[in-house]
Amino acid sequence: MHHSEVVPSTVVHDLRQGLTVHGPSGPLVAPLESSLVLPCYVDELLPMEGLEVEWKRTDSETLVHLFLEGESRPEAQQQDYQDRAHFFTDQIKNGNFSLRLNNLRAEDEGRYTCTVHSQHDSGETVVQIKDVERLLVSGSSHSISVSVGEDVTLNCSVDSHIPPEHFEEVSWRKTDEDILVLFYQKNKTFPDSSDDRYIDRVEFFTAEIPKGNFSLRLKSVRTEDKGVYMCQVFAGGLSANATGVLNRMGLSVSHIMVLIFCITASGSALLLWWLIYCRSKFFTDPIATRHVRTLGVLHAFLPNIMMFVAFVLWGVTEGFLYETVSCCALYIQRPLMLIYVAPYLEHMSDLALQSEYFLEIVVYSSVLFSKALGTMVHYNVSDKIMMIIIFGIMILLCVIYFIYSLQMSAIEVPHAKAQEEATALVECALTPRGHEAPPSRSSGPRGDPKRVPGGGAEDSASLHP
Fold this sequence. Notes:
By secondary structure, the protein is an alpha+beta fold. The chain has five helices and 23 strands.
């Protein structure tokens, strides 16, 4: 326990101009939970017979302590002061009626009157406890449960002899990850100092700050927000903190929709696969083949579109921009890739496939570059320039590859057509005269050779001299 030192005053308060009672030189200040002496004494020795000393709160007339008939009377004390307020009983015979107040509380601030009654005279003095130096921070007494997407308030109330506008610093941190959530210093809030995931989602109740209320409002709660949060206050060389726990996260409507889309995507993929498998043995039937091809297109597109929508909803709810963009790019590209490799479907052109590759690389590179920019804020200039050059080279190589692919496709297509024409001419040349050639596009509805004037059948042999 700490004891406060007081300087006796020459200023006295008299009652009936008889007994002179001395008090302190001015208001008293002491730390919270310390011991404080409230001075009250007289210069002359008083007989114990008929002596009465009474300590009271002047604002409420609460009896703090009483000395009567040669002994202290703790049973007469108001309950809040029992076992806390004591006379120096061995000093009373010397005229020292000071009171020691232990375990000082904030509510002990105020004015106290020491009244001394002797057989013939009376006198009093007033003692003021101006400030109980304290810094008490209180938070939520229990963990908080909230659904994702809702707003939540984490409590932080400060009780101090120092006005809130003179607080040196107030900070909210997520202790399990050591992340700065919100910062207050010298009567000003600094939202830009918050971690990226909390920017534009946290705020103080500005109107409540003068009352010592530094509760934190967290908007649009995400799954990653679960954890322990600490409100820490620094003021007048003192520091104190309180913690709050954001515990269980309930599912929001968006999360339920994401779950539905994921289940539907999986179910549709399995169902369509089973239908394709059951009908695959009828590939020789043109009608069945068309059905299988339709199911194949649905199998390629439907589950991926559902997963694309699910990731968009997840990104909007959780704020995972980079992850969402990457996954959405993947689920846009997958249907075309599935169609390309499907054995029962017409393959798409190489140019379309290369375009997909190019698009995917550009999207992924852009996401990585954006994420790198966010993490290299504290890098020096040379490192930043190096990162930009590396990503620039990557994009440039992609562009060069895409242009090269276009040129190669332009060269290969005429070459392939020329090869097909040459092959057809060779086959025609090797076909013997009189041998029936396969039906041409000029054949009739049943494949019979189309008759021409003159009665001869038009066949491939007639093309040769």
